[in-house]
Amino acid sequence: MCDNGSNFVGAKRELDELRRTFLSQQSQQSILSEAADSGLEFRFIPPRTPNFGGLWEADVKSMKQHLRRVIGLKILTPDELQTVLAQIESCLNSRPLTPLSNDPSDFEALTPGHFLIQRPLTAIPEPALREVPEPRLSRWQRVQECLQHIWDKWSTQ
After folding, report:
1. What is the pTM of this model?
2. Is 135 part of any domain?
3. Fewest beta carbons within 10 Å, which of 34, 89, 96, 112?
4. Which DSSP state fits 134?
């Protein structure tokens, strides 16, 4: 339900027009022929079978596990949640895939981050706050401490 604001009325009109376009036979044929010309083919895994999804489902599982560990039962602000998601994403995109060279003294590894920004995802680490009692930590420091725990886990693997 929404009010009759001009933006909502206009959005409804646009969505109705888009629906009519997609439902028209000519539009469907056009979309199918364009997809065939481009070599696009959709393949779907069976419902409720994430094990068929392979690597991308494993990444979704990793993201969910880290979110559960970091957030737990805490309620985060939208900015805090966005920061947590970005840092978990950075952690997951820093996992080594393969060595960059055959030189045994070169410890640089190819990571998913290389495909995103053509270099490793590196940052100056936050100071460890493990010695500070939790009640004395600010809200942001608590989030950072949870994230540091995840980063430490990934860096030792």
Report:
1. 0.53
2. yes
3. 34
4. G
